[in-house]
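Quick illustration for those who missed Monday's session on complexes.
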Amino acid sequence: MRLLIVEDEVRLADTLRQLLNRQGYTADVCYDGVSGLDNAMTGIYDLMVLDVMLPGINGFQVVKKLREAGVATPVLMLTAKSDVSDRIHGLDCGADYYLTKPFEPEELLACVRTLLRRSGGQLQESDTLTWGDLSLERTTFTLSCAEREVRLSRREYDLIELLMRNGNQVVTKEQMLVKVWGYDSQAEDNNVEVYISFLRRKLTHLHSAVKIKTLRMLGYCLTQEVEA
Ligand code: CA
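Prediction with calcium ion bound:
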């Protein structure tokens, strides 16, 4: 899961990032409306936390432009304004939810979970994602199969999560680079290959029937061997 935070108050932005990181989400931060919009336009984010009062262009304009461009990323708007007309304006512009500052961290996390679920994420209440005989635990970064479990690094976690969410579908190296390493990253195809090999080793260690299949020139997908 990759989230985008657009917030010009640096301390609040950092607090939000840490809060989301602790819950197992990867979060990128932009401090103004223009770069926030640029990043969000890539469509790679699963959710956007967007402040209203921003330098450059404001949050209302950001979400409006996003929706006009057909980007459907769920948007959670944050603002100091508690005026009802502002809330309505935000929702009219295409925001999905509105949270008034100051807010409780737990409240924000609950909104994030709700929006991610609504947008088709398969996360259950327990924050566990399952595919085949595998269970992936977001809060502890553990991957398990029956009685065995392994801890994953951040990248391994993001990569297997992406594969599990796509099930039998092919995920290209390019999608992996953008979703896992980020849009501006200098990472290359061989970075993906290295992490895929780490994950394969861990799947073997878990005695899982799930394999990461390589489709030459295309990418990777998960398959599950059926026992004879
Ligand atoms: Ca602000």
